[in-house]
Amino acid sequence: MFLSLSPKLSAGLLAVASAVLFSTAAHAVPEAQFQSAYVQFTQAQSGDSAAIDKAAESFAALLATEPANPVLMAYAGAALSMRARTTMLPWKKMSYSEDGMAQIDKALAMLKPEHNAVVQNGTPGALEARFVAASTFLAVPGFMNRSARGAKLLDDVLTSPLFVQAPEGFRNAVQQRAAQLKTTAP
Prior knowledge:
The protein is mostly helical. It contains 8 helices and 2 strands, in the order H-H-H-H-H-E-E-H-H-H.
């Protein structure tokens, strides 16, 4: 037996249900899937060259399921940029680096106030996307002219009122990166 509702009430319930569904689903993939890709990413970032392709493929697949998720886009771009370390061909190195950074730029442009909420990894999405971008921009060679923007993004994360609400592991990673930047700054 079906419940009969007025068209106006039905439309209202549909709108509320859609808003709830899309407010949670549009900005987060299941945490287990994210964590699997994240582990590969951190291994790649730590110098495990075998994990680079896995991380890039994993984040590209996650991004395909959630193309409007700026956190996934930032990680996918960062992993793609890391692929530059996996080839000896100069044009491939540039292609991976430039394509990855373009993806990160797109992720940063997508950030909106709703990304101040937790998106993935227990961290406000805006902070995580900016930190991934900052770390990537600070890691690329100087001739790519991204270090100043990376330093600015890192400072934006550190000075954000959301920073104190972020998980301790995230705060420690940001503070450690900031300390590294201070020791390498001219």
